[in-house]
Amino acid sequence: MTDATETPLRAATPDDAPAIAALLTAEGYPAGASDIVERLAAWDDGRSAVLVATAKGEVVAFVAVHVMPRFEHADRIARVLALVVDEGVRERGFGHQLMEAAERHAREAGCAFIEVTAGWHRPDALQLYESVGYEQGVAIYLRRRI
User: What is the pTM assigned to this prediction?
Assistant: First the structure.
């Protein structure tokens, strides 16, 4: 049984695209390897990071975090836009390790806050975020398709 303490994280590469696409697709967000290659290229801007965790040489989890300036304050905020851990290796520390890495990226970029969105239909994700210190905030997240 592999757990997160046995593997370091690393930056995602285009070679990881098939595995990342499979993880996203398994979570209900269909993507192909070519989609992920394009997204990785778009995120290669110094502000964003996509990190992967591996077990026995295979990508089993990833996190995507983006840093942006805030307008209302002269600082930055980071947002975790995706975190997926393969169902077969959940509860082994990969999610915690990836969230710690996202926070480290945010701190190094001078962020005042880091935020993440968890859908009500994913109670396991909400539990993970709360277990590492995230709290439901005062803001309400609204969106509209355009």
Answer: 0.85
